[in-house]
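Table S5 (text form). Sequence records supplied for joint modeling of the two-component complex.
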Amino acid sequence: MTTRDDLLVTDEYKYGFHVPERYEFKSRPGLTRDTVIEISKRKAEPEWMLNFRLRALDIFHSKPMPTWGADLSSIEFDAIHYYIKPSGQKHTWEEVPEEIKETFDRLGIPEAEKKFLAGVGAQYESEVVYHNLKASWEEQGVIFLDTDSALREHPDLFRKYFGSVIPPEDNKFAALNSAVWSGGSFIYVPAGVHIDVPLQAYFRINAEAMGQFERTLIIAGEGSSVHYVEGCTAPIYSRDSLHSAVVEIIVQKGARVQYTTIQNWSSNVYNLVTKRAVAEEDATMIWVDGNLGSKTTMKYPAVILKGRGSRADILSLAMAGKNQHQDAGAKVTHVAPDTTSTITSKSVSLHGGRSSYRGLVKIHPEASGSRVNVQCDALILDPSSSSDTFPYMEVGNSTSYVEHEASVSKVSEDQLFYLASRGIPEEEARAMIVSGFVESIVRELPMEYAVEMNRLIQLQMEGSVG
Amino acid sequence: MTYQLPHPANELWRRTRPDRFTLPHPEELSREFTFHATGAEVSGIHVLPLKEGLKFLSGRSTGIPSDRLSESGLSALIHAEARIGYVLIVESGLSPEKPVEISLSVPSGQYHAMRCVVLIGEGSRVVLSESLSGGENGQLLAASFLHLGSDSSLTFRRQWTPSGTAFSVAHNRLNSGASLKLTTFLETHQLFKYEETSTLAGDHADLDTLFIDVVRGRGHVDALLGADHTSPSCRSRIEGRGVVYERGYSLHHGLTSIPRTSPGSDTYFTSRHLLLSERSRADSIPKLMIDTDDVKAGHGATVGSVDEAALFYLQSRGLTRQQAEEFLVEGFLAPVLARGNYKGDSNVA
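The corresponding structure-token record, covering 815 residues in total, follows.
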């Protein structure tokens, strides 16, 4: 008989449920020119976008699969549905299984958000159905739309920036996304506008073997600021699912953008994402990237520091459980003088999982006076788990300074002993130590996410003793 | 036998184009070299020319395991065709008072393939130094193999200042309780590709290796410094320090692996570079691959220039900028040069 504890034992994906699919259109599995033309036609896109997609498709077919990083050999490109248009019909809270509601309760998720997480409140699959933007921002000229609507409603602005940071030629999966993208967020913040409440969007994959290829584009005008928060959950299915997003961000002179991702895909999802920002003079770009779920993640948020005095902060958190490989990290390219970057990476491996930090810091000869600090720490919680670090540092001038520090360790027996002496059981003590280990990243999250993250860690840690 | 240069896509050859090396025909290899050894006049220590030495060892493994090589035809050529080099054997239980000192020199303008084999018997404690120079306008291919028997100890100072292009592959094997303290000092204005891997093959083996490169002109140093902890409870400390002048380039590529079968491992890799000209460059790639939780592992890397404030201070005391810079470089290398006892041997020290 299944008990509540069985359901919550770690490695079983906590949100592993799905509600029956309801969609208006679902493309046939497999990727051909016809699929791409069909997607573009259904969305009534301009011709330039169709041509862009078709060019990207050719690039996708011409590029080999990456031979480095995680094992991607079992992705079945021909079994994936590349486009699903959901119907507007909502599911109801009553359809959500009891144990899932219970898990939400244990995570302490607020009532409205529970419905959101369960997919009964807001947006679904490829099509962004719901966005909430305060009227006051609209008055200031802020645009916050799903990417498809942005293409329709702001064609000139869209065309100017789309694909300008990550062209389809960048890598095989950026090409794939460029060919079949659907949904995602488009944000434009005019010069001097500060959005003081984080903008949020949830994404869900809800159809078997469906790829989710959202495309996000953020443009922060001169002196503006915005914080965008993206959270992901996905249900378990037997066949592997593919999530391959592209996120492009343009941070203009003196602007500040923070992009926070809490990624918690189910354990059958390949999560292969290309994220890159370009920072102009005195601009600041902050990536906060939490990778908790998926089968395989390959994600290296990147910043090109193009303007003098620009700055990048990248905080990356990875937790690799059973059968998971989190290959995550960061890339910073210093092109302009007096640029600064910091990379902080924390990874936790447990139950046989593998976490890899892969990072690149490149300082061009012209980027004189640049400063870089990289800190990557890994915690391995049992003898069957693994951790790798693959940092690349390339320094092209003598006036820059780069420092890098990394450590790999296990939970210290001394800490466990001390906490045991204070009456704290080992499992709880381990969860506390892990929470402390990742604290420097969790504290950068909005409060409700930080609370959720700590509870997720506690849930992940269950069953980690004995 | 035909040999092939490594494939340019090989991860270990990404930053040095393989075609910068030539694969000479074995007939083209020089048989000339100057060899001088002192301190080996002790019973139980044998220093022999390569051919004689290999014959003496008759069948003992003195090669680098094939999985340690970067799929390099260069390594295979050295192992099969080298005509010059030496074999040093220290029998078990010896602790000679004096260091063994070996100096090697190769003539200019030719292809050279050299092998050096050092075998230290169980429980022996040895201090060894080796210097190599020459080879102007030529290409030196070298392979060295160190084997340390159980509970032995070797302090090895190696100073290489070849005037031509060089490729060197080195493998160190430490049995249980063995301790290797290896310091390699390299100074070049040419291309130098260096691959050193150590296998900690017995429990409680202790590796302490320090690699110093001084790169001048358009010199290019590509150094792989690797350690495989194949036994439990071993310790490794690997440090690279590079000083890069003019349009030079230096890469320190660390590669440490700790498999599941090696709990209790303790490893740290450090790479420090000092860049002394606007056009000098340095890369650092400290990789760690760890498959067990019972481990202490880390790495640290810095790349920077001399401290402007310190330069200013020294200039205010009457030194020229160049003198002040050399002073600070000496400071950067002083602790490591003292350890290697290289005083007076280099332009830098």
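Note: The interface with chain B takes residues 365, 368, 378, 380-410 of chain A (CB under 8 Å).
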